[in-house]
Amino acid sequence: MSDLAGQVRDGYAFDGPALDLGALVVDGRGDPGAKVRIPLGMLNRHGLVAGATGTGKTKTLQVMAEQLSAAGVPVFLADIKGDVSGMSVAGTANEKITARAAEIGQDWQPVAYPVEFYALGGHGTGIPVRATITSFGPVLLSKVLGLSDVQSSSLNLIFHFADANGLPLLDIKDLRSVIQYLVSDEGAEQLRSLGGLSKQTAGVLLRELVAFSDAGADDFFGEPEFDTADLMRTAPDGRGVASILELPGVVAQPALFSSFLMWLLADLFQDLPEVGDVDKPKLVFFFDEAHLLFKDASKDFLESITQTVRLIRSKGVGVFFVTQTPKDVHPDVLAQLGNRVQHALRAYTPDDAKALKATASTFPRSAYDLEEVLTQLGTGEAIVTVLSENGAPTPVAWTRLCAPRSLMGAADAAAMTAAVKGSSLYPKYAEPVDRESAYEKLAARVAPPSTGSYPQGSTAPDAPPAQSYPQGDKPPKAQKDEPNMVEKVLGSTATKSFVRAAATAAGAAIARQIFGTAKRRRR
Ligand SMILES: Nc1ncnc2c1ncn2[C@@H]1O[C@H](COP(=O)(O)OP(=O)(O)OP(=O)(O)O)[C@@H](O)[C@H]1O
Ligand SMILES: [Mg+2]
């Protein structure tokens, strides 16, 4: 084994800065002379942190996130169990921590890190994160709604229709009103011209969206939309800000949660410039409960994930997937994860045994009997291999990991609330805004341009798109030929300036990206 200690010492001796993961375990003890590390410059080669429940995955993230922050790199983490929030509070020494630190040669000090708390749609303690429907796009929305292939291609057509006709889809009611318009008598011709969208499927989509709204989803979609540039911040002292998405009760809406994480990634991808290989990453994104993303994913969806993960690397963003076994991650994505921290696996059931075998086979060759070792690892220990600075895998090392310097566990709830309310980002995102968009535009078409009252019912929340355009209520410059609804909306001076302002969010200027997500006009 001492031979292995030498290999590890050499294999993990990097020229540039690196994160300390821990030390090699030799004969059951950490060997401070054989440190196990990840080069900062290799974090954009992505990674996987895996292991059974309670084996130390979250603490591994915390250890990595702390050192990234200290190195000036912002990080993003999802806090599923509430125990990541402790990063904002200095840890307290105890016997276990002191013993662990001494054994592996870690210079342990209690440290609190700069943190920003977020919450999807404001559900939970955090600055509300919302996306507009248009930028979320049809692909991710289909995933959230669990649509069939036919339904999801129909949703695609509806987005195209709205994009091409200057109907901004900011919230769910915008999308509903566009569909309602298309299934109305007035929209019949346009529905036909779309081709491939049946009235029946449109009706199903409408019902899905109503149920989605009823389930509380309106809070997640709309404005102000979260600007992913806010994830790229550093604190005044130069440390990277840890953005922590608080996700209580996420288990209830797994598809929503994983799609939102994917949206954040896709949006970052769109906005960030190419930087090629960098000395240190621009951001490291920890994608927790990653199995949810791949569950029931269509082929197109998988391709989009694979492509985003592959391409975001050259934008300086590292993505670490966190899940129980490598089997949870699609092979095409797994193949791109250069850094591996595998905590203990259980071998209770035949399925466990299969996962164990498969996991062992994904590691480079080593002297370990991995199928055996993976079931023997203690808490806070892992099998590690990373990419060295020249891109070759480092020796496989049974590692005892460093202890987090911040609190292991949840931060105080009152302190978190105070931090959120006191954040400089709070005023920007706290209150939802309902700007003029497709719903209002479609509702407005039934209104006379200058005089007269709105027709009965045109202000009823669900009614507008179904209203017919009253004869004689044409905009002033209406031609002999009845202009279609969109021309009417565009022709009205009241909406013209808005339409111009929305030009990048509508019409030809909308360039839907890998995930069908759209670029916004905020920057
Ligand atoms: N690196 C570490 N240093 C010190 N203690 C650790 C470390 N890793 C794990 N532990 C101990 O093990 C416990 C469980 O670790 P952790 O919460 O990270 O597990 P997990 O794999 O994230 O579990 P789950 O799947 O349930 O989220 C911690 O509360 C802590 O007491
Ligand atoms: Mg955990």
UniProtKB/TrEMBL annotation:
<protein>
    <submittedName>
        <fullName>ATPase</fullName>
    </submittedName>
</protein>
<dbReference type="InterPro" id="IPR033186">
    <property type="entry name" value="HerA_C"/>
</dbReference>
<feature type="compositionally biased region" description="Basic and acidic residues">
    <location>
        <begin position="474"/>
        <end position="485"/>
    </location>
</feature>
<dbReference type="InterPro" id="IPR051162">
    <property type="entry name" value="T4SS_component"/>
</dbReference>
<feature type="region of interest" description="Disordered">
    <location>
        <begin position="447"/>
        <end position="489"/>
    </location>
</feature>
<feature type="compositionally biased region" description="Polar residues">
    <location>
        <begin position="450"/>
        <end position="459"/>
    </location>
</feature>
<dbReference type="InterPro" id="IPR027417">
    <property type="entry name" value="P-loop_NTPase"/>
</dbReference>
<dbReference type="Pfam" id="PF05872">
    <property type="entry name" value="HerA_C"/>
</dbReference>
<feature type="domain" description="Helicase HerA-like C-terminal">
    <location>
        <begin position="30"/>
        <end position="522"/>
    </location>
</feature>
